[in-house]
């Protein structure tokens, strides 16, 4: 199938499906006839150094969280090792008014939207349900139900469209919406229903699929007979495949797709072709279903290393810069370890104050019964008084 004219031709990569690439695994710039890296009037090397820093810090968040889970401090962690370029390239292409609907793995995008990574750890530690305010960050809460966020994103996109925040020509008003999902979620009904509604209503949404080639233990070739991005044509909007380990290409492609949405040209599908070098989550053992040789080959395409090599060879970036980023990552790691262990457990009675605007008699009875039960345990003191305080504070 020929590429969509809207996104132009592509280049070959490792003899596989066509995809867009601007920075090779060896750290060399690659020309493309339709896409180029535009730093937006800023110093190009400085912008790329920013991408490098973003990816290093995002990886440190991931590795520290994985270690914390292994030490029993988190109940679970969804790793993103190897997918840093896809997330940072996408996250940095956003404007402040754009809105993001994540899965449970978009830690790099959350970082780009100003979410304190400790808030992510709190969610996986089980002490809250996601304590960041989506109204402040334009970053929705994590979605565990596979693919459900695509319907949420499409509905929100239809809303901003009807609010007149699309196609006005005002760069500070026109809004795009991004729905993140993985290759496994592309098989879900919710995702395909979102495609249908987005196409039918010309919604300003970008469907950003991080194809890390494994839906837990199911390989991508068992899910589709064609590259995922080509599915978009069947729904009536353009699709494109980008090297998801290339932060420059991902940024360039997402700039185009987001602007297309903002100006009122409708939805698009971006498939970021990448690889999950770690496990699906910390409950998974990938050695049971994939070959170690595949992982080793993808390590040679490490998204961070290719940017480091480019900066060292082709810009005036000094060793001091890399050392400074490493020191910053070490400081972040220390803060996350100490901060995670210091996170306070929630009061077991607090949910009763967040069900209705005014608590019902039935809930009061349930709350008091639960409070009486808690008082039978050492350390809970006067649970009834605590319950009254929590309910009062909720209104």
Number of strands: 7
Helix amount, in percent?
A: 40-55%
Give the rounded overall mean pLDDT. 91
Main sheet characteristics: 5 strands, parallel
Q: Give the overall shape.
A: globular
Q: Strand order, main sheet: write it out.
A: 1-2-3-7-6
Number of separate helices? 14
- Poorly predicted runs are 1-5, 7-17, 391-395
What structural class should be given to the helix and strand makeup?
A: alpha/beta
Intertermini distance? 58 Å
Portion in strands: 5-15%
Radius of gyration: 23 Å
Secondary-structure element order, as H and E? HHEHHHHEHEEEHEHEHHHHH
Describe this structure in words.
This protein is α/β, with parallel strands linked by helices and 395 residues long. The chain has 14 helices and 7 strands. The strands form 2 sheets. A 5-stranded parallel beta sheet has the order 1-2-3-7-6, with helices on both faces. A two-stranded antiparallel ribbon has the order 4-5. Mean pLDDT is 91; it is low at 1-5, 7-17 and 391-395.
Structural descriptors:
395 residues; alpha/beta; two-stranded antiparallel sheet; 7 strands; disordered C terminus
Which helices and strands occur, and which strands form pairs?
Layout: H1 44-70, H2 84-92, E1 99-101, H3 107-112, H4 117-125, H5 134-137, H6 148-162, E2 177-182, H7 189-200, E3 205-211, E4 214-215, E5 218-219, H8 231-235, E6 239-243, H9 247-262, E7 268-273, H10 292-299, H11 303-314, H12 319-342, H13 361-374, H14 383-394
Helix pairs in contact: 1-2, 1-11, 1-12, 2-9, 6-7
């Amino acid at each position: 199938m020929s590429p969509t004219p809207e996104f132009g031709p592509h280049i070959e990569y490792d003899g596989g499906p066509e995809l867009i690439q601007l920075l090779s695994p060896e750290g060399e710039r690659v020309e493309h006839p339709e896409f180029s890296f535009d730093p937006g009037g800023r110093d190009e090397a400085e912008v790329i150094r920013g991408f490098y820093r973003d990816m290093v810090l995002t990886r440190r968040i991931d590795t520290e969280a994985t270690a914390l889970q292994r030490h029993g401090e988190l109940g679970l962690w969804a790793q993103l090792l190897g997918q840093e370029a896809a997330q940072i390239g996408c996250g940095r292409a956003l404007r402040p008014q754009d809105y993001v609907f994540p899965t449970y793995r978009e830690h790099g995008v959350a970082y780009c939207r100003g979410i304190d990574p400790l808030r992510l750890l709190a969610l996986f530690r089980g002490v809250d349900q996601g304590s960041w305010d989506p109204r402040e960050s334009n970053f929705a809460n994590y979605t565990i139900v596979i693919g459900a966020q695509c319907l949420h994103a499409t509905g929100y996109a239809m809303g901003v469209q009807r609010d007149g925040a699309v196609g006005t020509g005002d760069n500070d008003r026109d809004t795009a919406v991004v729905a993140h999902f993985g290759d496994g979620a592309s098989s879900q009904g919710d995702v395909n229903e979102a495609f249908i509604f987005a196409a039918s209503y010309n919604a300003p949404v970008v469907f950003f699929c991080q194809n890390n080639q494994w839906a837990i233990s199911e390989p991508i070739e068992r899910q589709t007979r064609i590259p995922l991005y080509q599915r978009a044509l069947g729904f009536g909007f353009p699709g494109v495949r980008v090297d998801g380990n290339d932060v420059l290409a991902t940024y360039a492609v997402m700039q185009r797709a987001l602007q297309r949405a903002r100006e009122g040209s409708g939805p698009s599908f971006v498939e970021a072709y990448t690889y999950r070098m770690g496990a699906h989550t910390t409950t998974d053992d990938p050695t049971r279903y994939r070959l170690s040789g595949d992982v080793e080959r993808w390590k040679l395409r490490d998204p961070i290393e290719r940017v480091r090599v480019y900066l060292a060879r082709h810009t005036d970036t000094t060793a001091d810069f890399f050392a400074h980023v490493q020191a910053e990552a070490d400081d972040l790691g220390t803060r996350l370890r100490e901060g995670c262990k210091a996170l306070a457990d929630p009061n077991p009675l607090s949910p009763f104050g967040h069900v209705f605007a005014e608590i019902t008699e039935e809930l009061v009875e349930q709350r008091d019964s639960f409070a009486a039960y808690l008082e039978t345990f050492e350390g809970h003191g006067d649970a009834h008084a605590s319950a009254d305080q929590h309910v009062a504070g909720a209104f």
